[in-house]
Amino acid sequence: MMLHIPEVLSAAQVNEMRAALDATDWVDGRETVGAQGAQVKRNRQLPEQSPVTAQLGGLVLAALARSTLFFSAALPLRFVPPLFNRYEGGEHYGLHVDGSVRRTGAGQQLRTDLSCTLFLAEPEDYDGGELEVVDTYGVHEVKLPAGDLILYPASSLHRVTPVTRGARVCSFFWLQSMVRDNAQRAMLFELDQTIQKLRARLGESEETVALTGQYHNLLRMWSEV
Ligand code: NI
Fold first, then answer.
1. How far, in Å, from the CA of 23 to the mean position of ligand 1?
2. For a Cys-Cys bond, which of 7, 8, 82, 153 suits 60, CB 3.0-4.6 Å?
3. Interior/surface letters 157-180, b for 16+ CB within 10 angstroms, e for the rest
4. Alpha-carbon dihedral of residues 45, 50, 56, 60, nearest 10 degrees?
5. What CATH number does the domain located at 3-177 have?
6. Cα–Cα distance between 8 and 61 in angstroms, integer?
7. Calpha distance 105→43 (Å, rounded)
8. Is 23 exposed, middle or buried (0-12, 13-18, 19+ CB in 10 A)?
């Protein structure tokens, strides 16, 4: 399941982040991938150890913690600290699958169940730079307003098309979900959305309480917490 989460960051937060990002030094993005990724990756990133990366990454995670839609869809257990990338002058990232296990700064290993891209440049400020995600339904082109996020299974083949004008700036990161299986997680998300709609219409009715109970019993059965 791919999901667009709108307005994770406000326009003011995006501007603040861009001011910090545009004033800092970037390194070759090939530093953070294995040999296979290095052959197809052409972009720049903030160094993982940079204090700017840690500070802005903290702001991204704090903003996500306020999003009930994100929580409901991702059921996050652990995050890889957010990184930041920049594509311009024809830079691109060829077709690849993200690594299945990542080490966090604290030396913890986590399984990458979901990939996230948070857009930090407005779509009209650059040409190209679409995130193309391939799944069984075909190829999905993603280019979102600044402040919006796309969530997609980390197992998906994906690429970033060449940026031919302007600069594409994003934050990207992975998370391990409480529910490993994509189909089970999608079912829980749909059930939760149904419960929210029912609750808005009927309040704490017998139906809402019963469905909420079912939701928690499924989550108890499927979660790895
Ligand atoms: Ni990737």
1. 25
2. 82
3. ebbbbbbeebbbbbbbbbbbbbbe
4. 70
5. 2.60.120.620
6. 10
7. 22
8. exposed
CA of 179 to the centre of ligand 1 (A): 21
Tokens 């690429």 sit on residue: 159
Residue whose token pair is 């999003």 = 67
Share of the chain above pLDDT 90, in %: 86
Query: How close is the Cα of 118 to the center of ligand 1, in Å?
Result: 13
Rounded CA-CA distance 183/170 in Å is: 28
Using 50, 70 and 90 to split pLDDT, how confident is the model at 104?
A: confident
pLDDT in tens, 25-77: 898 888 777 776 777 889 999 998 899 999 999 999 999 999 999 999 999 99
Confidence of residue 105 (pLDDT cuts 50, 70, 90): confident
- Check residues 136 and 199 and name the one with the higher pLDDT: 199
Let me know: does 53 contact 21? Beta carbons within 8 Å. Answer: no
The alpha carbon of 130 and the centre of ligand 1 are apart by a number of angstroms equal to 13
Res 36: pLDDT: 67
Residue whose token pair is 């940026």: 163
Domain ranges of the chain: 3-177, 182-222
